[in-house]
Specification:
The complex is a heterodimer of chains A (about 350) and B (about 325). Chain A has helices at about 60-75, 95-105, 125, 140-150, 180-195, 205-215, 230-235, 240-245, 265-275, 305-315, 320-335, and strands spanning about 20-25, 30, 35-45, 80-85, 110-115, 155, 160, 165-170, 200, 225, 250, 285, 290-295. With about 350 residues, chain A is α/β, with parallel strands linked by helices. Chain B has about 325 residues and is an alpha/beta fold. Chain B has helices at about 40-60, 80-90, 110, 115-125, 150-170, 180-190, 215-220, 245-255, 285-295, 300-315, and strands spanning about 5, 10, 20-25, 65-70, 95, 95-100, 140-145, 170-175, 195-200, 220-225, 265. The radius of gyration of chain B is 18 Å and the shape is globular. Classes of the chains: A alpha/beta (about 350), B alpha/beta (about 325). At the A-B interface, α3 of A face α3 and α4 of B.
């Protein structure tokens, strides 16, 4: 008798007390204190929805593997331990590929569920075959995302694999659409139900959008707010506000110095130093939003280890102590990713 | 030379036999593949599909062939290597479509693409093949997003389709015939003769009163009565259903008014739906089991039936040379 393709793949994928103190990696749960240096907001294979069908887009699997494996090995050689693929479930995520990359390189890979912003969604969620075509509400997204933790991540129409380690969503830059709001609320509910953390890359108002997910009953220290090194976020004082609210502050475009939408590394270093001085060292996360392989959008060639190798010394130069740097690179992501 | 692209290669239009011009092996909205409630094992999918196609082939023996035009666009679960295996094993010719069911089924990558990129996508799928399958598209699908109003993205797809149709000679069929004026304007601007366009779903329940048949027929366009079988008499009809009698009378009226050469008919059934429950018992074979007997009962002669299901679609599907 062949197995039901929708059945959980890994026995460990099912929720339960065994997972406490562990993070869900694509190869199963691992003790969170063995994750090492973690890059929390990165992409491995990143595919704009639909690009895999583009006539001029090569999806050569061997090429993709080779490029990603080389980048993960470089990360490991630089002292990295874990890469979190925070692209969600519909932006090129290929769970067997991630598993085999992790096996081949020895780097822990945490994959994410979730979707967003609205423009990245398929018509199934936005204009369903009902009359009228009412977009999906939060509870349906919560169920979809939650099952990717409790039953395993989907390989579309084939099978479920291991548990997602994070629910990741993103808001529309101009401000959350009603469906974005459903995605944010649904992500929060899935996190409450399963114990994995939530990542929100804010749309227009980091603090208000954080409050939206907290209103679902999610403790603040289960949320990481991304994109907080956007120029507007820094000008508005949102990094400190988010930390004060108890959520994780992701300074997650480390290495990007040619885009006016973001502050530069010097300002990032100053910002982190300020947060540490204000007592928020336990709330800061660093990452690069590197793209391992990009399909359907511009490549972004940044080493996964950039925060560790190039940016951490800038912090040290600004007087941030070693213990705080270790807190930021190792302990904070450990606490975030440990399933509760 | 009269050629039609099937997923297994070009065939002469004379070999098409009876044509079901708007059908689906399996349709699912983009993203439905993430929702396990719709998943089926490969055994189930083949098991639901093969008997329907074999029956279709069997019914069509007297017509010299059976052709199934799949109207599933890019991003909607179109699965050409699967169609190739189905065709090879059942003997049913399958014509695959490039294009999109509507703007709201085009994922972001295509939603943000230019007319020129979309045109190149369609042309590539018609002249080189779809993905790595080698199977070439034989028709272009376009359509109107939900809400009965043509949106900017819908029109961008219509324009790209018109250009690709002119360049390659394949025809276009549409999802919905509502709000047709902007579409007619695009085709006129691009210089595409309207007999290369089948305006589909003109017969569905929710479109009635919203289809400008006069403009379509007057311009030389083709009209699709291609949701035959989505009858409100079903135990659980879909929202686009219509009373069987009313649809049939509508069809007969157009034939009676002299538009026989411009009408095409099909069932728009899913052999094995991908992202929705489908309609139990509704298959491509409705054409043989209900529709053709209904037409005969109404006194429609065999020559007329042949015109609707054989000659008209053969003319429509034949690649034009410009």
């Amino acid at each position: 008798m062949l197995k039901d393709p929708t059945a959980p793949h890994h026995p460990q994928a099912r929720g339960g007390p065994l997972q406490r103190g562990h993070a869900h990696t694509v190869l199963g749960p691992v003790p969170a204190d063995s994750l090492g240096v973690v890059a929390v907001h990165e992409a491995l294979l990143s595919v704009v929805p639909g690009a895999e069908h583009g006539y001029d887009i090569s999806m050569d699997r061997a090429d993709i593997f080779e490029v990603l494996a080389a980048k993960l090995r470089a990360f490991k050689a630089a002292g990295g331990g874990t890469v979190v693929d925070s692209t969600g479930m519909f932006h090129g995520r290929d769970v067997p590929l991630l598993e085999n990359l992790s096996r081949a390189t020895g780097v822990h890979v945490v994959a994410s569920t979730g979707m967003g912003p609205e423009e990245n969604l398929g018509g199934y969620f936005l204009t369903p075959q009902t009359n009228p075509p009412t977009p999906w509400p939060a509870e349906k997204f919560a169920d979809l995302f939650g099952r990717e933790v409790t039953e395993g991540m989907v390989v579309p129409r084939v099978e479920r694999r291991g548990a997602a380690g994070l629910v990741a969503t993103t808001g529309t830059r101009g401000g959350l659409t009603p469906t974005d709001e459903s995605l944010f609320r649904g992500a929060a509910r899935a996190a409450v139900a399963t114990g994995v953390p939530v990542s929100i890359r804010y749309g227009a108002d980091a603090v208000a959008e954080l409050e939206l997910v907290l209103a679902e009953g999610l403790p603040a220290d289960r949320v990481v707010v991304g994109d907080l090194d956007r120029a507007g976020a820094v000008a508005a004082g949102w990094p400190a506000a988010v930390a004060e609210r108890g959520a994780y502050v992701a300074i997650d475009h480390v290495g990007r110095n040619d885009d006016d939408a973001f502050v530069r590394d010097a300002d990032r270093a100053a910002l982190v130093a300020e947060l540490v001085a204000a007592g928020h060292a336990h709330r800061v996360l660093l990452s690069g939003n590197a793209v391992g392989v990009a399909k359907g959008h511009a490549p972004y060639e940044l080493p996964y280890a950039h925060a560790l190798t190039a940016f951490a010394p800038l912090l040290a130069a600004r007087g941030v102590g070693d213990a705080d740097i270790q807190q930021i690179l190792v302990a904070n992501p450990r606490d975030l990713l440990a399933v509760r | 030379m009269s050629r039609v692209h099937t997923v297994l290669g070009p065939i002469a239009a004379e070999e098409l036999g009876l044509v079901a011009v708007h059908e689906h092996i399996g349709y699912g909205m983009p993203g439905s593949e993430l929702d396990t409630q719709w998943w089926k094992t490969p055994e189930q999918r083949y098991g639901e599909t093969v008997p329907k196609l074999r029956q279709f082939a069997e019914y069509s023996r007297g017509y010299g062939g059976a052709t199934f035009v799949d109207a599933t666009g890019i991003c909607n679960g179109r699965d050409v290597d699967y169609y190739q295996s189905l065709s090879a094993k059942t003997g049913v010719h399958i014509v695959a479509a490039t294009g999109f069911v509507g703007g709201d089924t085009a994922l972001r990558f295509f939603a943000e693409a230019s007319v020129d990129y979309l045109m190149r996508q369609f042309v590539h799928e018609i002249t080189v093949g779809i993905g790595n399958t080698g199977g070439k598209a034989g028709i272009i699908k376009v359509g109107v997003s939900r809400g009965f109003r043509m949106k900017e993205l819908d029109l961008r797809i219509y324009r790209a389709a018109a250009r690709a149709a002119l360049l390659t000679g394949v025809p276009i069929f549409t999802h919905l015939a509502v709000d047709v004026e902007p579409a007619l304007a695009v085709f006129a601007e691009e210089g595409l003769p309207l007999d290369r366009v089948l305006f589909g779903h003109a017969d569905d329940g929710v479109s009635q009163g919203k289809v400008n048949e006069e403009a379509i027929l007057g311009g030389g366009g083709r009209i699709g009565f291609d949701t035959f079988g989505y009858d409100l008499e079903l135990p659980d009809p879909p929202f686009w259903g219509r009373h069987r009698r009313e649809r049939l009378e509508h069809f007969l009226r157009l034939i009676g008014e002299g538009h026989l050469d411009q009408v095409l008919a099909s069932a728009d059934a899913n052999c094995s739906p991908l992202g929705w429950p489908g309609v139990e018992g509704h298959t491509v074979n409705y054409i043989y089991e209900q529709l053709i007997p209904d037409l005969r009962q109404e006194g429609i002669d065999e020559a007329t039936i042949h015109r609707v299901f054989v000659t008209n679609p053969a003319e429509f599907l034949t690649l034009t040379t410009n």
